[in-house]
Specification:
CATH topology: TIM Barrel
Strand order of the largest sheet: 3-1-2-4-5-6-7-8
Bound molecules: iron/sulfur cluster
Helix content: 10-25%
CATH architecture: Alpha-Beta Barrel
Largest sheet: 8 strands, mixed
Order of helices and strands: EEEHEHEHEEE
Structural class: alpha/beta
Number of helices: 3
Number of domains: 1
Strand content: 15-25%
Number of strands: 8
Low-confidence stretches: none
CATH superfamily: Aldolase class I
Distance between the termini: 38 Å
Radius of gyration: 15 Å
Mean pLDDT: 96
Length: about 150
């Protein structure tokens, strides 16, 4: 699994400071994709257990959640890194363009954002969006937390 970039983010998971890993090789090819540079598998650097562990260790106590932007196309590796994050005391989140992911992945998520990007419907803050931000344990849709009002 290759990480195109890493950022500390505040908006992607409401109420959390998140360590955000963007994974390359997205196979979905949504029309109007805002990040076509993520389509190529192998862009960025290969995630290593050591580098990932060091980042989680460094930010522990400041950040509270680990977010993967994609990566569901590498289910075993993704589950490994989600489990690792949970064991270190982090919440976990996946942003996927799919409507559903494998239950084995879901079992290790606190939150999931589902749905392909459709420009005409808008993102999570749009009333017409096809995308959902869900608390996995309760299956509650939390899109209202992204609303500006
Ligand atoms: S899921 Fe995201 S990165 Fe992948 S094609 Fe769609 S918009 Fe682009």
């Amino acid at each position: 699994m290759y990480c195109y970039d890493f950022h500390v983010v505040m908006q992607e998971v409401p109420g959390e400071i998140s360590l955000c890993f963007t994974i390359s090789g997205c196979p979905l090819r949504c029309d109007g994709c805002h990040s076509p540079f993520l389509w190529k598998e192998g862009s960025g650097s290969k995630i290593s257990e050591k580098a990932y562990g060091d980042i989680l260790h460094r930010y522990f106590g400041f950040a509270t959640c680990v977010v993967f932007m994609g990566g569901e196309w590498h289910p075993e590796e993704l589950v490994f890194y989600l489990k690792f994050a949970k064991e270190q005391g982090y919440k976990t989140c996946l942003y996927t363009g799919l409507d559903k992911v494998n239950q084995k992945i879901l079992d290790h998520l606190t939150y999931i954002k589902t749905g392909a990007w459709m420009a005409e419907l808008g993102g999570l803050s749009s009333k017409t969006t096809n995308q959902k931000f869900i608390e996995v344990k309760t299956n509650r849709v939390l899109n209202h937390l992204f609303s500006p009002h």
